[in-house]
Amino acid sequence: MKERLRKSVAFRLIVGSLLCLVLVLQARLWISNGGFSEVSRLHTQVELQTHENEQLAERNERLTAEVEDLQRGFGAVEERARSDLGLIGEDETFYVFSEERGGGEAVKTAK
């Protein structure tokens, strides 16, 4: 009988120890820095970075196409000078229409 009682106590100690170990491991899994919350945060961060990388890749493609256009011909350079710098050609006339003058009078400037 005493032997059976000793086995029962030993069995209970082992089961109790294993249960405590499982609880400690579960707590680490759910609460600690390397647990599920950290993994979830990292997944969100990866998704945001992937979205940003896609946008930057599209921008790079547009810039690459623009560089190729500028390298190929004079037309793209001329278009860029007109839109960004406001330049006009030698034999061209530049008109500015202003609503503030009351009738849309034209101012003629030649370069």
What does this molecule look like?
This protein is mainly α and 111 residues long. The protein has a domain of 32 residues. It has three helices and two strands, in the order H-H-H-E-E. The protein has a two-stranded antiparallel sheet with strand order 1-2. A hairpin with an 8-residue loop joins strand 1 and strand 2. The longest helix is centred in the middle third of the chain and has 37 residues. The protein is rod-shaped and about 115 Å long.
Topology overview:
Elements: H1 2-31, H2 36-72, H3 74-85, E1 93-97, E2 106-110
Antiparallel strand pairs: 1-2
Helix pairs in contact: 2-3
Question: Brief description of this entry?
Answer:
The protein is mostly helical and 111 residues long. The chain has helices at 2-31, 36-72, 74-85; strands spanning 93-97, 106-110.
